[in-house]
């Protein structure tokens, strides 16, 4: 067993852990980053699949994500806009395809009125929510005890309006059914992006991509940290001294023992309990980590010889709460002559298709995409399903959220350090929650917390 001594040991080489490590190293602290996988990046993973560069994990950057944008600038990475020229597609409950421009779907006028009214109500509520402290809202407990689906039912009888508004948070963001998370959790999701309107505006929330892929952020950060990043080192045990935090921690992998003054657990919160603690974490942490779970979504890439939908005047942007693929976009790489579509199959729909054979699943998913783009969508030259649910060191996608009542009950303690143990992850962020921007923000804040304490 090799022994290393440092000021701070960071568990997890995702965007959050690497940001914290960089900030601490820049402030003169010695750091070691222990990463379970044989690559840096966690949920950022840009890979070559059958000759196509695909963003298997996170990829989009929106204009308010200033922590991410600053990091991209620092690393010299360039961005380009998502292709969005032409008309969008919506498929309603009757299966009829409609073309539209702007953000509001082409629904019957009464439904449109309900959608606009729901967006206004949600924006007004979101304006009252501090994304860093949603539990401080005067009605936090009430809003956390009612599911988002139920809350929508209390607002309108119009099912199509509910389905559409529900989709923006359920299938598209938390990737859980709207009955499985609270109205408060939904408001946090919207507040973290500035407003509910921003979530509805694909041109805002899915604005730009990084030339060469977003995984370059963690890869370049890791490169700068050099030998301080140790890959293939899953932390199994953490030894600490609750009554003498100044004695620090020992992070133990199969090969290494890293002795440090502080540890940052920069892992998704659902994986915190994969580590054994000696002695155990306090009761509060043992409880609260059980009230978070990952959402689940399949990100599907289909690459074609040409972006054929553009010739038909389509932007590639397509939505339908009634389709297996509830949203899809033109995801063609920068200056790539081939055309790429990306679609998403979320929560119970994802469970459903994973009960099929790989061939049947592919056929069902492409059929759904063909409802938006026509027959040509059935014949991609490259096809790939991101399956984060079977990744041992992630276990779902995009991120973790609280169960009903959990946010008001435990949210305030999620990031509270326990002696020398600190927590950092996009899934614990306020602004930028569940996004790379949030991962970077929390990474910076946790590094500052340690610098202030030492
Ligand atoms: P992350 O999970 O990335 O890193 C944690 C690291 O800890 C991992 O590398 C893991 O292997 C490691 N680890 C876990 N347990 C360990 C242990 N015991 N010992 C050692 N290492 C351990 N965001 C966005 O901004 N725009 C987008 O378009 C998207 N889209 C998107 C699509 C898909 C399919 C996914 C899965 C995710 C997104 N996201 C996104 C979300 C974004 O990718 C995510 O929020 C951040 O990358 C999370 O970064 P973190 O560093 O917080 O965790």
TrEMBL record:
Keywords on record: Oxidoreductase
Q: What positions does the entry give for FAD binding?
A: 16, 35-36, 235
- Asked whether the UniProt record includes Oxidoreductase among its keywords, one would answer yes
Q: Where are the transmembrane segments?
A: none
Q: Name one GO molecular function term.
A: oxidoreductase activity
Could you list the residue ranges forming a coiled coil in this record? none
- Show where the Amine oxidase domain sits: 16-451
Q: Which residues bind substrate?
A: 344
- Cofactor or coenzyme needed: FAD
Q: Name the Pfam families on file.
A: Amino_oxidase
Which family does the similarity line name? Belongs to the flavin monoamine oxidase family.
Q: What name does this protein carry?
A: Putrescine oxidase
Whose protein is this, by species?
Agromyces ramosus
